[in-house]
Amino acid sequence: MRPMLKPALSRAWRDRATLQFGTVRKHARVVDEVNQAVAAFLELLDGTRERAALLDAGERLGLGTELAEQLLGSLEQGGLLDDAEAVQQALGGYSRPQQELLGPDMASLSLVHPAPGEAPAVLQSRARARVEVRGAGRVGTAIGAVLAAGGIGTVSLVDCGRVAARDCSPAGYPPTDVGRLRTTAAREAVHRAAGAAAGERHRRTPAGGPPPTLVVLAPRDGSGAFTGAAAEAQQLMRAGVPHLYVGVLEHLGIVGPLVLPGASACGSCATLTRRDEDEAWPKLLAQLADEGPGRPRTPACDSALATAVAGLAALHVDLYLDGGRPPSVDGWCELSAADGMARRLRLQSHPECGCLWQSVPQPRPAAREPMRLS
Predict the structure, then answer these.
(1) What start and end residues bound the annotated signal peptide (predicted)?
(2) What is the DSSP string of 196-252?
(3) Which end of the chain is more exposed for a tag (fewer CB within 10 A), N or C?
(4) Could you tell me the pLDDT band of residue 202, with boundaries at 50, 70 and 90?
């Protein structure tokens, strides 16, 4: 381990002998009684020295090995240290341009996962993850780009047709992509966001391989997140693949539920709950699912709202892949274009759905008596 002070934390003097690391109260820490020797020792925590070398340096500075050890322990316990060697190894799996792009992401991870070496381990786990985004419209393409920029190893977008003007957004397709095949343009958008060189942005994702770690259902027409995506969600449930519903419904951005098959409420639970509140909902849902080209309309999808929804959805995916439990599990989040407010609504498993039945221990059948022959 090569200890280093986390570069994400600012440094400011509260007085001549008290140094504060960080600004946000949750992460801010104070080191008091900072004399010249302690200040010099802190400057050595740049990730270029092993712990033993730092202790030797502390002895030469007049701190003494014991005090230097105590200072290192206090800094580590306070979440101020990271392991530069682990950081280097985690970034080593990416190209040089990608490493530079991921610097701020690594700095953020070091605060969310404070133990030395913990953030690099999380980034390495992201590099092994496979996320499939089904729907490459204004929201879906932006989700894919943000995930790729955050270090997800394999991000694939699944869609058909050609890019329309309403699919473009600052975080996804540029207007110059209108008319191109969505599969090609979306792939390039993801590779561009990940920092791939211009000559590598056209490469295809290899077919086959293990199933996705997670699937994002983000149809171009947001209402499809609760209609046309239902059959896809059932297949994912049977395969045990976690999946996240995302879309913009009129003026509301929706993120969730994030379904953990057998462990959380699913999309069918949401449909059945809505049916309990509105008996006409199944009839309306069937009409929405059958809405075709004979009934043209322009789906509402505010560009700022779509970008915010894509960012929130990508954050929830990252949280799940990093080992957390996003608020879209057993619930969903709404973003309103009318008032800019974000809300979280709870979702309980519906008793008629059965999505959690397999997770409930079943009573063992009573043993049968052996058949008697007379």
Answers:
(1) none
(2) --GGGTTPPPPS-SSPPSEEEE--SSGGGGGTTTHHHHHHHHHHT--EEEEEEETTE
(3) C
(4) low
Angle subtended by helix axes 182-193 and 138-149, to nearest 10: 30
Give the Cα separation of 349 and 353 in Å (integer).
Answer: 7
The single-letter DSSP state of residue 5 is: E
Mean pLDDT confidence for 91-113 = 89
323 and 238, same structural domain? Answer: yes
Asked whether the beta carbons of 258 and 329 are under 8 A apart, the reply is yes
pLDDT of residue 362: 36
Question: Is residue 93, in this structure, part of any structural domain at all?
Answer: no
Tokens of 124: 């390495």
Output the pTM of the full model: 0.87
Query: How confident is residue 360, by pLDDT bands cut at 50, 70 and 90?
Result: very low
Over residues 204-249, the pLDDT tens digits come to 555 567 889 999 999 887 655 555 567 788 889 888 999 999 999 8
48 and 176 fall within a common domain: no
* 353 within domain boundaries: no
| Same domain membership, residue 148 and residue 74 | no
Residue 116 lies in a domain: no
Find the DSSP H helices in the chain.
Answer: 36-43, 51-60, 65-77, 84-91, 96-112, 118-128, 138-149, 182-193, 230-239, 267-277, 281-289, 303-321
The amino acid at 307: T
Ramachandran angles phi, psi of 199, nearest 5°:
-75, -10
| Secondary structure string (H, E, C) spanning 34-60 | CCHHHHHHHHCCECCCCHHHHHHHHHH
The domain of 63 spans 3-84
What CATH number did the domain enclosing 191 receive? Answer: 3.40.50.720
Residue 21's CATH number: 3.90.930
Tell me the pLDDT tens digit for each residue of 268-306.
Answer: 888 888 888 888 877 887 777 665 555 556 778 889 999
Residues 158 and 32 in one domain: no
Q: Total domain count for the chain? A: 2
Q: Is residue 76 part of a domain?
A: yes
- Directed axis angle between helix 138-149 and helix 303-321, to 10°? 40
